Amino acid sequence: MKMTYREAIRQAMHEALAADPRVFLMGEDVGKYGGTYACSKGFLEEFGPERIRDTPLSELGFVGAGIGAALGGMRPIVEVMTVNFSLLALDQIVNTAAALRHMSGGQFSVPLVLRMATGAGRQLAAQHSHSLENWYAHIPGIRVLAPATIADARGMLGPALADPDPVVIFEHAQLYNMEGELPDYWRCDIATAAVRREGTDISLITYGGSLPKTLAAAEQLAAEGITAEVIDLRVLRPLDTGTLAASIRKTHKAVVVDEGWRSGSLAAEVMARIVEDCFFELDAPVARVCSEEVPIPYARHMEEAALPQMPKIVAAAKGVLGK
Amino acid sequence: MIAPPPSGPVPWDKDFAQKLLFDMLRIRRMEEKCAELYGEQKIRGFLHLYIGEEACAVGALHALAPEDNIVATYREHGHALVRGVSMNAIMAEMFGKRAGCSHGRGGSMHLFDAQTRFFGGNAIVGGGLPLAVGFALADKLQSKQRVTACFFGEGAMAEGAFHESMNLAALWQLPALFCCENNQYAMGTALGRSEAQTDLCAKAASYAVPTLKADGMDIVAVHEAMKLAVRHVRDGLGPFFLELQTYRFRAHSMFDPELYRDKAEVEQWKQRGPLHTFSARLKAEGKLTEAEFLALGAQANAEVQASVDFAEAAEWEPVADLLKDVHTP
């Protein structure tokens, strides 16, 4: 069945709300407005204001309330409008949600699902275009997901809600309008990386909004006789190093593509894992394509120049291959 | 300075009055021992003593039911103890032993106990308030008659978390009881030096939350005020804000040289200490004899000594378990 990424997210939430009375959705404009990205359109009418709960602009407050509600027996889906605004709630996510189980000696789990949009590409400038997935992937105690396909948009929420610990789901804002086929078998795990395209010459490792660009780069490389393998990390914490290592053992070369800024990026972590686990398998230094180290600019040509783009990925791959 | 406690007899029978006095004594003696053990380096990290403020936790918690939720701060030894966490488990936690109520992973600032619905032990100032809103929301959604009591200091009322939480609780009419223990100082900063509006009830009232102020040095005033607050919340009338005006006799933590307040001020508050004023009242009213008072003290001392022995003898968690309890297995 053909559908958009947005519709896949919507169906996933609808299924969860219909199946489990403990599940409720809370966040800014999730109700009357229908969701900032229209992912909860029609939910308020169907499930009512108790379960589709519009909040004031109080990210710290309602994320913390989500944690409390999870401890109190509910299965909240808390939507933060974008990762940029999640910084207002960072204290509750890091100091409470992620730490509570450990600092209570294992007495309390926090079955909270936090969804948020991330990423640039819509000329929204420096306060609405962050890609801070890596900050969350740094924190022990939470699982971090980045659905990049229609199937993952549909499939990841269920297991995230079933996880007894906090799960953060990053939906790249550029993906909501992406259209594609929802495969018959879309149920999935939230533990492994996926090979999105098989190849033998080089591994292109990416996640989230950079996946379509990376697949386009692989297509371009194929036209030039280079077969690239594309790995979609899917799960940013904990990283599935097994899938990475298997790919490196096959291709012996890698480029990491990450919309985060280069310094201290998730790309840096992936490269470190490759060097730790596969150093002697490598035929060339690992390269990466990240965002330029500048707050994301407004002007279209400048924004495009700041972000990883298909030609940059192709060039990086050729550089590694010495072509 | 707040008004002295209202005169008139203690409105409780002898047993209940002595029970509350005993709980204050247990906290006091336990914490005096903790300070000693800190000097001996048996207890490390931060240690925030509650000495002087005991009437707040004891008066308030005795107005709650076992099914209620408690969210507290890093100055929570007394709350945990009165709530029913054993002194052994608290002491072992401070020693960092596996037998502690948070298995040695939390320490003094992070006492937790699922059994008694004691949810910390939150050491980010104001961090417990949104959590309490969430507990109350969960109870409302599940139609439970439970009260969530959230304790915090007046310092937390400068945090955004206070304002966001108060608004959410009032907007959604949640069964949350916000109990501010106003001990006059946010660490070393006096209320008047950090807040433009020093009338804390006025701040809460601006969110359309009903408020009440009580003398936190007087356990009778605390308990009676808390009973009213609990009744309001349990009756489904929405959140409530209770301010308890109190004072800590000891330093903020064991690292605090107390440069910010006069010794005379401390002495003045000590005159109103919750233990000696309440025991004197009970004696004057014939609800406590000197022999009974001494016996309660001896019993508290014995409990403290037993808890120290327990903590000393308890095992260290093996380092091999280091990564345990980060995720649910």
How would you describe this structure to a colleague?
Chain A is globular, with a radius of gyration of 19 Å. With 323 residues, chain A is an alpha/beta fold. The termini of chain A are far apart. In chain A, the strands form 3 sheets. Chain A has a 7-stranded mixed β-sheet with strand order 3-2-4-5-7-6-12, sandwiched between helices. Chain A has helices spanning 5-19, 43-47, 59-71, 83-86, 90-97, 100-103, 133-137, 150-155, 157-162, 211-223, 241-251, 266-278, 300-306, 310-321; strands at residues 2-4, 23-27, 52-54, 75-82, 113-118, 143-145, 167-172, 179-181, 194-197, 202-206, 228-232, 235-237, 254-261, 287-291. Chain A contains 14 helices and 14 strands. In chain A, helix 3 (59-71) runs parallel beside helix 5 (90-97) and helix 10 crosses helix 14. Chain B has 329 residues and is α/β, with parallel strands linked by helices. Chain B has a single domain, classed as Rossmann fold. Chain B has 12 helices and 8 strands. Chain B has helices at 14-39, 54-61, 77-83, 87-95, 128-141, 160-171, 191-194, 200-205, 219-234, 263-270, 274-284, 290-313, and strands at residues 69-72, 118-121, 148-153, 176-182, 185-186, 189-190, 211-215, 240-245. Chain B is globular. The termini of chain B are far apart. The model of chain B is unreliable at 1-5 (pLDDT under 50). At the A-B interface, helix 3, helix 5 and helix 6 of A face strand 2, helix 5 and helix 6 of B.
What structural keywords apply?
heterodimer, A: 323 residues, alpha/beta, Rossmann fold, 2 domains, five-stranded mixed sheet, 14 helices, 14 strands, 21% strand, globular, B: 329 residues, six-stranded parallel sheet, two-stranded antiparallel ribbon, 12 helices, disordered N terminus
Query: What is Rg of chain B?
Result: 19 Å
What is the total number of structural domains of chain A? 2
Describe the biggest sheet of chain B?
Answer: 6 strands, parallel
Q: Which superfamily, in CATH terms, is the homologous superfamily of the largest domain in chain A? A: Thiamin diphosphate (ThDP)-binding fold, Pyr/PP domains
Helix tally of chain A equals 14
CATH architecture of chain B: 3-Layer(aba) Sandwich
What quaternary form is this?
Answer: heterodimer
Structural class of chain A: alpha/beta
Strand fraction of chain A: 15-25%
* Protein chains sharing the most extensive interface: A-B, 41 and 45 residues
Name the CATH class of chain B.
Alpha Beta
Major sheet details of chain A: 7 strands, mixed
Shape of chain A: globular
Could you give the distance between the termini of chain B? 53 Å
Question: Rg of chain A to the nearest angstrom?
Answer: 19 Å
Roughly how much helix do the residues of chain B carry, as a percent range?
A: 40-55%
Estimate percent helicity of chain A: 25-40%
